[in-house]
Amino acid sequence: MILPGATLGMLGGGQLGRMFTTAAQTMGYKVIVLDPDKNSPAGIIADKHICAAYTDESSLAELAQQCSAITTEFENIPANTLAFLENRTVVHPSSTALASTQNRNVEKNFIRAQGIATVPFVSIYKRDDFADVSNQIHFPAILKVATFGYDGKGQIVCEDLQAAYEAFDALGQKECVLEQRIDLEREISVVLARSQEGHITAFPVAENVHINGILHSTSVPSIATEAQQQTAVEMAGKIAHGLNYVGTMAVEFFISKQGEIIANEIAPRPHNSGHYTLDACQTSQFEQQVRMLCGLPAGNAELVTPVVMINLLGDVWGNSQPHWDKLLTKPNIKLHLYGKKEARAGRKMGHYNVLADSSDSAMLTAIETFAAIKAD
Length: 376
Ligand code: ATP
Ligand code: MG
Description:
The chain is of the alpha+beta class.
């Protein structure tokens, strides 16, 4: 076990890295963040910030030399970077686990290999690969770049085959996946921790609403059926074991109108839909990440109170600050801001958790507050 006083390394300086840093520091660890941005949300609060590219070997060697263990908050850290660090210190999750989640085609094939359903899809490497798609999926479909997409970026909805060809050109003819668009009943996610011994501790299932491909709200408890929730937790566990994953991770699921549970994607890190755990569970997903990295047992993941989490995107800022007084005067809302200087449309700036007797009543307060805080 790695105990308080030790130094932990974090690859990536975004909000997930920042919340890991806070959790680790609260428990008495020191944190070194490596991120190329000198104003990164995690870098500015860490004990030390190594401001360098993820491929800068002398900086990586410095990080490895100073840290008892290293983790990440960002799936697009080059797998080679993790492999380099693995030769020098403890690294979780592993480079191989990360590599399985960095490319949507590789990821979907991996999920299917575990016997878990994905949406019908066709891998697109070149224009010719569209020739046979109509035999494999129905339109409308969504063309997504295979690598480096997030928050709905690099995705184009295609009404027909002609539109799909045009979308491929618009995305620069990069490797893509063409997914059938599913009629969704709801979206849920499972955030879990898997230990070095392979023990899994799942948080309660989260119910998610996306707007324009970006997460807007998470409610817990979810109103998906008990059986659906149990199936999703089992599937996520299977995926975690299949990856031999160590740390906190998430699996996003679609539930179709027919009630089928379909894995959408894997996040090899804490997840936006797990931010509710910061205020509503006995242990947060970030404390769990620290615990798994340090070889400690998982904390209790039980829900303490129903909760709704609302994301605060840059859109809420307009040209000035949101009306924080309208939020902070409510005793059952917890505000989390990530310390980002510039509020751009679609940029995740923070979130808030509304705690209440039921997720319905939390949602009412959450909606009311969202309308009240928007800058003029
Ligand atoms: P993030 O990293 O924020 O999860 P992303 O860019 O990886 O986003 P996806 O998870 O692929 O994007 O898609 C974002 C959202 O768009 C989904 O949560 C869902 O609401 C919708 N969506 C994506 N693919 C499909 C699909 N095949 N059928 C129906 N809806 C979809
Ligand atoms: Mg997603």
